[in-house]
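Thread: quick sanity check before group meeting

JM: Hey all, I'm pulling together slides for Thursday and realized we never actually wrote out the predicted structure for the chain we discussed last week. Dropping the sequence here so it's in one place. If anyone has concerns about the input, flag it before I start.
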Amino acid sequence: MKLATLKDSTRDGKLVVVSKDLTRCSEVGHIARTLQAAIDDWAHAGPRLARVAIGLETGAQPTMRFHEHDAASPLPRAFFWAGGSGGFTGPRDPVTIREGASKLSTTAQLAVIVDDVGVQADAEAAKQAVLLILLANDVSADGAGAVSSFSPVAVTPDELDESADLSLLVRLNGKPVEGGKGSVKDSATAVAAAAGKRPLIAGSIVATGSCLVTSALSLGDVVRVEMNDRTGHSIFGAIEQTVETRSK
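JM (edit): ok, ran it. Output follows.
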């Protein structure tokens, strides 16, 4: 199942279920208005959303065109983000850095959205708590976290082969950046580590460190982050952003 949040007049956007090929979506406000609302009641909302996803593929569900540019990050804001800064921006919105900032860099990787996780949860409990997987990109300035962004679409773990070696595709101004190999199974270790000293609230986002890619940046650079399936089709949609400056 693939889920996205469309931008609207509210801070948390509007939840939709997205087709596997990322071309169509269905509104699901009758199930959950936002992704956070769905996560808060996942035991009931999750199966209902999954049935919508099936109907979307079989033609039994009303649909509308899905455009990645209309999407916010799946969770426009989260209770906890273990792995980057607190300010989220949309996957196709520019990244604005204060004027005069230096040492710009980008860090892309897989991240997960979790259910409630108890403190010092073991690996199996951490694995079961992973509800959704998404791509994350953090643009930093002067060695400090600046802006975090997430892929247009978050997917349930069954959309990815846990045992497969995955490749994160990062392009800087159209040129590929080396690195980005990893596996979904690394997520359980990352979640357990994040819950080592504190419980995690449902809707927390955890950076897994899997498929990690880092690169230096310059103002005006365009960063594109995505992951393709075995047929070459995008799984999460793409984060594509231009690095800009703003006045102090």
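AS: nice. The first strand starts at residue 2 and ends at 6. Residues 75-246 form a domain with the Fumarylacetoacetate hydrolase; domain 2 fold (CATH 3.90.850.10).
JM: adding both to the slides.
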